[in-house]
Amino acid sequence: MLPELPGVLSGEQVRATVAAIAVEQEADGALPWFRGGRLDPWDMVEAAMALDVGGEHARARAAYRWLARRQRPDGSWAAEYRGGVEVSPAAESNHAGYLAVGVWHSWLLTGDEELVVTLWPVVRRGLDLVTRMQLPGGAVGWALRPDGTADDTALLTGNASLFQALRCGVALAALAGRPQPDWELAVADLGTALRTRPDAFADRSRYSMDWYYPVLGGAVTGAAADARLATGWDRFVVPGLGARCVADRPWVTGAETCELALALAAAGRPDAALEQVAAMQHLRADDGSYWTGYVYPDDARWPVERTTWTAAAVVLAADALSGASAASGLFTDPGALSEAGTEASQETAGWLPGGAGRGRP
Fold it and tell me: 92, 138, 317, 338: least buried by Cβ within 10 Å?
């Protein structure tokens, strides 16, 4: 069943958005921002998740296998690809971790054991790299230096995403019967840093993602989540248009608005979340794709591009708010992730080749 939000998005409109993502996919499975444009691993996973929500499971699997083929031996990916070729040699920690979220999301939707078996070693290498990049105090360095060590700068948004990625990895490890205690320790320390050590992260507070991502990633919950979102509301939200990407710029962006909606839903504010998804529909194009952003004083789309990851954020927000799919709670119910991992370990552990084990293979 396709998600729909009455009065905001119909099922057919969501179907058109999924199709707009699919048409940009390359024959080898790559999902760039748009056909012929750049590709980065994090945004590609987000687009693949939206394809899965829309029932395009073969396309999502092809995207994940594209990433598997291009993973480096150290568990990283290039920060940017064009035409399947590495453009930027940089390796970012949030890119290394995010496949775990996509694979767990796919498992929730499809129960595809073959895909999990295929991608488990890829997820493991990526998250092992993340744990090696963890700094004293719990934060994770944002990138690898040329000598293979972690940069000592940590970015709040990327770390909040890694909190979710590590938790998904722990759930996958339970499913596979391969406990990863290093990941469990890493996510506990990271969660503490995200909640109590703001000085562990570079000051990028002018960016809206640093405002809502600790809630979206599941590190900040309950009353603390609601309080955090309330604190930045007037600074970032433009009534009727959506959320600013940057506090001091008159520019609202679709992906950030839909991610804010996911964070609001996670904080128990579904009505406010729905209002944000409705507000950003001015970015919708006739074919179901979405413009990346809008500079409202100039009445101008900017940049002049319709990105797969913006469309994907819309689909994931619609799914979360409608509860349409088996994966709809991934972003909005942080507690369910731990419960799902426990159930997986009890019911299906041991089907990964080699059987259940303790520690890393």
Answer: 338
pLDDT of residue 352: 52
pTM: 0.94
Cβ distance 353 to 338 under 8 Å?
no
Angle between helices 57-70 and 99-110 (to 10 degrees): 150
Residue 49 lies in a domain: yes
Q: Could you please report the per-residue DSSP string of 143-208?
A: BB-TTSPBPS---HHHHHHHHHHHHHHHHHHHHHT---HHHHHHHHHHHHHHHH-GGGS---TTBH
Q: Indicate which CATH number applies to the domain containing 202.
A: 1.50.10.20
Over its C-alpha atoms, the chain yields an Rg (Å, rounded) of 19
Q: In this structure, are residues 24 and 35 in contact, taking their beta carbons and an 8 Å threshold?
A: yes
Q: What is the C-alpha separation between 355 and 296, in angstroms, rounded? A: 56
Residue 355 lies in a domain: no
Strand, helix or coil for residue 301: strand
